[in-house]
Design a protein that fits this description.
By secondary structure, the protein is an alpha+beta fold. The chain has two domains: about 160 residues, Beta-Lactamase, CATH 3.30.450; about 80 residues, Arc Repressor Mutant, subunit A, CATH 1.10.10.10. Helices cover about 55% and strands about 15% of the residues. The protein is built from twelve helices and five strands. Strands 2-1-5-4-3 form a five-stranded antiparallel β-sheet. Helix 8 packs across helix 12, helix 9 crosses helix 12 and helix 10 crosses helix 11. The protein is elongated, with a radius of gyration of 20 Å.
Amino acid sequence: MTDALQAIAWHRSVGQLIESLDKPNFWAQLLRLVNQYVDFDSWVVLQFSTRQRPVVFAESPGEDGSLDQLFQDYLKGIYLLDPFYIASREQSQSGLYPLRDVAPEHFELTEYYQRYFRLNVVADEIQFNCQIDADRTLCLSLGSTRPFGPEQVALLSLIEPWVVALLRQRLPHERAETMHDDDRVPAAAASSDWRSQLEASVQQNRGAQLTGRELDVGRLMLSGCSSKEIARKLDISAETVRVHKRHMYSKLGIRSQSELFSIFLQAQGG
């Protein structure tokens, strides 16, 4: 009887969400519903695209209501190292993605993890992806100060078709609000190609000229990919990856990923 009542409550709540698709409180209402089944500490709704920086549609309120500077740095360019962003560009399909399924082998050793993820997200993250078209993915990301357990992931997997469908149906209303409410959701200006930015910054500040392949290897290194993972992604050998790394470090006059991360941040305006 309890399960039946819970099912009735769920369907009633989803019905109310459908009625609220064009309302300003839609996201808060959706997150309250999800929170009844799984505990999480923060959330954000954003759109990933290859052609522009992430567009933020809604996010959990901060403790004091002020802008989160770490998140602002993320939007400026650190997102390029985000395992979820990289996965959304490589896989381009709807679904539920736990951090452990998208994080590279050395993710927890990266400067991105130490300087951003550990401080902003803290412990774990899981993301609903709704693939809009070949270039755009609408994402609902849940962050937690504790790892999501198997039961929580199973529950989120169970409601994933509902959540993804609601994301898809909400998007047309979100576009309308974005066009008419510039204060709440700023329109995202198309970002310059990150390779061009990094190449120009390195040339100006280091007097070095990196090849496109060296830039690709560098970014994947910073995201936490091992040499084998980089080799697989770029369809080259692991030894070739190591050669590119040596050449890149030599040209830049650096010895560590920490120094490379600082150069990357400088190029992205972070």
